[in-house]
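Invent a record, attention on tokens:
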Amino acid sequence: MEPRDYEALFSRYKTRGILLDTNLLLVLLTGLVDERLIGKRERTKDYSSDDYLYLTGVLEPFHKRYFTPHILTETLGLGSFHGRDRMFKYFEASQALCQHFCEQVLLFTDILAASQDLYCRLGLTDAGIVLLAKQKELLTMTNDKPLAQELRAQGCAVIHYATMKQVLSSHSAR
């Protein structure tokens, strides 16, 4: 994709909304607690504080940002911190983040009814992402290649975060 393709996707889905997967939501949440922690934890080791700033900028124009309880549960489980003060900041940041997102509940039985095969291949959270993206016609941003491939195969609009960042960074460097 070219930079103009990303701009067109952003414009097309600005009012409809964007759905983030677990790792990207974790980067946002960790950044709200302390940007310096990004990259120092196992699940954010491939990211930096620049990614936090980049993500907040990318998400800013979207009128609606979505997550499911499954995404949030994974995010909260992966991002927990040791120490009372950090845990308090973490839960404060979680509350702040939730104020800027729409939580879309998907029942386990509905996910299974939609596709047991998808659930078996991708797991509950990612199967729910595919289902929600299709139901609400959302743009999904992920750094998970199998999830991105499945979303494309299902006819959903998807952005692979690392690829987008590389394309846009190399274009702006010219």
